[in-house]
Design a protein that fits this description.
Elements lengths: L2 H45 L8 E5 L5 E4 L1 H12 L3 H16 L3 E8 L2 E10 L4 E8 L1 H24 L1 E7 L4 E4 L1 H6 L11 H5 L4 H17 L3 E7 L7 E11 L5 E10 L1 H52 L1 H16 L6 H29 L11 E4 H15 L6 E5 L5 E4 L1 H17 L7 E7 L3 E8 L6 H6 L19 H11 L3 E7 L3 E9 L2
Helix pairs in contact: 9-10, 11-12, 12-14
The chain binds adenosine-5'-diphosphate.
Protein name: histidine kinase
Organism: Psychroflexus torquis (strain ATCC 700755 / CIP 106069 / ACAM 623)
Keywords: Coiled coil, Kinase, Phosphoprotein, Transferase, Two-component regulatory system
């Protein structure tokens, strides 16, 4: 074979091989494409399953046209195209355009008649198309609305009940308060950081200990608690808050969470307190009234005793002076011509003295009859008691037939005090007449007057019959007379009157006495 022919044959073969290669390449590309299409078709038949009750749609990025759709997808597309509701279509197109710009899953809801359809759009960049899947969420939507209504009603109920809730995650030390708890406790939700410590700081200092103890007990003893605490303010009334806490345990059995509610119970607590106060006041009033009734009953009793004692005393004590007045006047009338001037005067003085004694007696009875000291006439004035007492004694002695030996012990030239002259006369006359009456004529009577920082003291000391211990206790009771008085006349009223006089001056009276040795009566009065 010649070389030229061989060369030509080689070139032809090379060319043929190249052609064959390019055909092969073309064919394999076709095969590859066919394979890819087959794969897509397979995938699409899975993806765009006709049985799928939810719509599956694919839109082209370039034309924005629907490329694929399953049965449900076609239905939606048809509905949108034919729908008289242009707004719905507009909204769909708007959302579609949005979806092409989003990365990941973009979702939107559309309302088809009574149904709410949720669209999940995924833009596949490499393929330049958008897959859309739908789900009928009408039921979900209804549940959502119901949930919203329940939450709304729950919130309203919380507002009405003035209640808020809280939860404390002990592991992360994170506390959450419901919006209403801020409202219930009147705390600014923007500024306040919920924590146990910050909560305690809102309370009355007296409630801090209790709140902290309950909190620690809940954690250590795994026990819930109920506490009423006071929320305090600078500018408004305290609130009473019922705080209830419960525990939640973790896997290891330790408390991991505390949760609870706080309720404003101010109105309830206040009305309870008002009720309690009302009951208490009522009780006090009832007790007061009972006491008053008891006292008035006691007074009634006293008065009735007084009356019977008075009758007994009057029949005896009035008879004696009246008999001697009658006897003296009889003698004067009968023997007026025969009696000398001196005899008549003697009898007239006797009558006068008896009348004086009866007048004192009657006055005493009137004073004792007034059971309430406040009702007695009392007009104090500041004066020197030394001349006052001396004058009363002088006047008293004038009417006595024989004056007794009186000694004075006075430490100061003058003793000023605020006293009622009329009542001081009662006191002095009574003490002096008793000292004279209950002692022998030849024994002295010592009268003392002293002044201390805020009080004046005056006393009458005698060396007479004295008073027994038993009688001293009852000395100031009206009509009480000592067991040793014997024939000495008296009403048992003088010292009761004296006590009233001392009471009016806010002073006191003291007695020191011993049988057959003598008695010492001391009156102490405040200076003003
Ligand atoms: P009266 O002297 O009219 O009986 P009083 O009320 O003045 O009534 O005194 C009550 C009683 O106190 C007297 O009855 C007497 O027993 C006793 N008493 C009072 N002063 C003295 C006194 N200085 N010495 C002894 N007993 C006295």
């Amino acid at each position: 074979m010649d070389i030229e022919l061989l060369k030509k044959a080689l070139i032809r073969e090379k060319k043929a091989r190249k052609e064959a290669e390019s055909i092969l390449e073309k064919k394999s590309l076709e095969l590859y494409n066919a394979n890819e299409q087959l794969k897509d078709a397979l995938e699409n038949t899975n993806l765009f399953s006709e049985q799928n009750p939810n719509a599956v749609m694919r839109f082209s990025k370039q034309t924005k046209d629907l490329i694929y759709a399953n049965k449900q997808g076609k239905k939606i597309s048809l509905f949108l195209n034919r729908s008289s509701n242009s707004k719905l279509k507009e909204k769909f197109i708007q959302e579609l355009n949005f979806s092409f710009k989003k990365v990941g899953v973009y979702q939107f809801d559309l309302q088809f008649n009574n149904k709410t359809i949720r669209f999940f759009a995924i833009y596949i960049l490499s393929k330049k198309y958008l897959n859309i899947y739908t789900a009928d969420i009408s039921d979900l939507k209804e549940t959502e609305v119901q949930m919203q209504n329940i939450t709304k009603r729950f919130k309203q109920a919380q507002r009405v009940a003035k209640m808020g809730s809280w939860e404390l995650d002990l592991i992360n030390n994170n506390m959450i308060w419901s919006e209403d708890l801020f409202y219930v406790l009147h705390v600014d939700s923007e500024k306040f950081i919920p924590s146990h410590e910050n909560y305690v700081n809102l309370l009355h200092p007296d409630d801090h200990k209790l709140a902290n103890e309950a909190f620690e007990k809940a954690i250590n003893q795994k026990k819930g608690y109920i506490l009423t605490q006071r929320r305090i303010f600078d500018d408004r009334k305290d609130l009473y808050i019922d705080c209830r806490g419960k525990v939640r345990l973790g896997k290891n059995g330790n408390v991991t969470r505390l949760y609870g509610i706080c309720i404003d119970v101010t109105e309830k607590t206040e009305s309870l307190k008002a009720k309690e106060n009302f009951t208490k006041n009522l009780e006090i009033k009832v007790n007061e009234r009972t006491q008053e009734l008891k006292e008035s009953l006691e007074r009634e009793k006293e008065l009735s005793i007084l009356k019977s004692s008075f009758v007994a005393m009057a029949s005896h004590e009035f008879r004696t002076p009246l008999t001697s007045i009658s006897a003296a006047s009889d003698v004067i009338l009968k023997y007026f011509d025969k009696l000398g001037k001196e005899d008549i005067t003697k009898r007239l003085i006797k009558i006068k003295n008896e009348v004086k004694d009866m007048t004192i007696m009657l006055e005493d009875i009137l004073i004792i009859g007034k059971s309430d000291v406040q009702k007695l006439d009392y007009n104090p004035e500041v004066l020197d008691i030394i001349p006052l007492i001396k004058h009363i004694i002088f006047e008293y002695q004038l009417s006595e037939s024989k004056s007794r030996n009186l000694t004075y012990k006075i430490s100061l030239p003058s003793i000023m005090a605020s006293v009622d002259k009329k009542w001081i006369k009662h006191v002095v006359v009574n003490l002096l007449s008793n000292a004279l009456k209950y002692s022998e004529k030849n024994t002295p009577i010592e009268i003392s007057m002293n002044k201390y920082k805020t009080r004046v003291v005056f006393g009458f000391k005698d060396y007479g019959i004295g008073i027994s211990k038993k009688d001293i206790k009852l000395l100031f009771e009206p009509f009480h007379r000592g067991e040793n008085v014997g024939e000495i006349s008296g009403t048992g009223l003088g010292l009761s009157v004296l006590q009233k006089a001392v009471e009016l001056h806010k002073g006191k009276i003291e007695v020191e006495s011993e049988i057959k040795i003598g008695s010492n009566f001391k009156v102490t009065l405040p200076i003003t």
